[in-house]
Every structure is written in structure tokens, then in C-alpha cells.
Amino acid sequence: MGKNGDLSDFDRGRIVGARRTGLSISETADFLGFSRTTISRVYREWSEKKKMSSMRQSCGRKCLVDVRGQMKMDRLIRDDRKATVAQITTRYNEGVQNTISERTARRTLKQMGYSNRRPHRGPVLTAKNRKLRLQFAQAHQKWTVADWKNVAWSNETRFQLQQSDGRIKIWHEQQESLDPSSVGSQVQTTGGVMVWAMFSWHKLGPLVPIEHSLNAADYLRLAADHVRPFMTTVYPSADGYFQQGNVLHHNAEVISSWFLEHKSEFGVLQLPPQSTDINPIEHLWDAVEREIRIMDVQPTNLQQLSDAITHVWSKISEECFRHAVESMTQRIEEVLKANGGPTRY
Fold it and tell me: The Transposase Tc1-like domain covers which part of the protein (predicted)?
């Protein structure tokens, strides 16, 4: 840790708060990660001088969120780790005279050491998975955004009435794990809506509700009814690639034969197994999830949920889906840095 003078006002407030709740110097040091000397000095300065800020004074405008405000924001985060910045800002502004903007709330949370990330989810990557992911990243590390614009992305996913299947992001401090068990249990529901969709940098593609898990026959119908029309329209020069995953029905013989028949119209880009973090369509799923969560009237049954998903998907902005594709160079870089392991995406 840095010197005592380097502590933020928020850190000083946490130290004083912990000591006032009855924690000993050693317990506070272990809990907050500061040295015993720092804990003792900060609490003594507060006890004797009521000092709650560093001697250093900022040169900029006065901070809109003081120590008490940061402690309030800390409570809001701990009460709801899945809250959006908009929700945190609204809750913070309730009953206060000096309200803040979402931008100020986001900046304050960053200064307090909070990050907003998805919890770890899905099966652990095997050595083989890591190797295949690394090979894919190495093979495409020189691709530019212009190259990725020639790819149409696809995937299927499930949305649930009360809780998404791991897409919701969670606020956490740097030293905290992203494992969902460390931030509370997830709401379990029995019903959900499966959908399949595709898109590219050039155009938002179709979204198709799925009544059950896809098999080879279902996927073949999707390819014929949606993939081919999209690819031949968006890439009339036959310079496009259709991306698909690496699940069982994608590799069925009838599917491979179908794509082979249409190789003169478009190619196929196969992602390695367990690689949803490489697929930029996840960015769009996140966007749909967020929009549904902030709807004034929440879906209460599966039909309403399906209608909401379809509506929100159709309203995804060009800026949103283009940004998703443009993130591909960074996604590939992240896989390379992780040596094929999981990434922050």
C-alpha cells in the first residue's frame, strides 16, 4: 500500500467505519488490506482531529461526492451488485439536495475502485479448449476491422423472466472474485425464451424465437431461411463469411454438406469451442438484456418476454452493433494475452 497521505477520502472513511463497528486494528487491516500502522494512524487522526481527508488538496473543482456520499454509494452497491449506473444514480439522488449525474456516479465508482464485469460463467476451459482458442487468435491476429466487417455473426441464447443466464454484470472491487458465489446467489426461474440471431457490421439481421434446443434439422432450416438470404444480400460479391459455433448440430454432416453447396456464395468461419467471449453478438445480447431490465412494465410471462426481446432487438442502433464488430481486434488481443484462457469479455 502507499503512504498514509495517498489514501483517498473513501479509504479513510472505510477505515474509520470499520474501527467504529468494533473491529480491532488487526481485523480492520486484514479486512481492508491496509497495514496495521496505516489503520492506527488514520483512526487516531480521526479521533483526535476529526481528520477525514488527505492533506493534499485537488486543483480542480470541488468533488460532488464527499466521504459520506461515497459511503452511501458503497452501501447501494453492496445492496444490489447488479444495479446499472442509472439505477445507482437515481437511488443516490433520493432525498439529497445536491444531485449528481450518471457521469459523476460512474467516475466516482471508478475512483472508489469498483469495476463492472460479468461474473465467471460456463464450464472451465480444458487444455484442448485453450489450445484451440489460442490457435484461432493467432490465425486472426493480423485481421483488421475491415476484415471483420466481412463476417456475419450468429448464436443462440436464452432469456429468462427474472434472471439472465449470466449476462448481467456485477459491481466488484479489484480484490474481489468475479465468481457469482462471492456476490450472492442468483435468482432461479423455471421458464425462459430461446432465440437465435445474426448480424454483421453492415446490417442487423433476423432474430428467430426457438421453441426447443436446436438439432441439425432445425439448424438447416435456419440456414436456408435466414442465413443464405442475409449473406447473399449483404455480401453480393461473395466475399462474406458466416460465423457459427462449434456445437454438435453445427458440425452435423448434413450441415457441412449444405455449406459446401453454397461455398461459391459465402464462406464459413468456425469459432473454437467454449468461445462466446470471442463472439461480438454477446455485446448485443447484453444490450437487449439491459433494455428489458429497465422497461417500465416488466414482462410477466413468456409471450411478453418474447415480444420484448423481438422489439428491443429491432431497435438496436447501428452504433451499437458496429461497435461490437469493431471490438474484435481487442477480443483477439485479449485471447492472446490470456494464452487461450478466458477474457474479460
Answer: 75-141
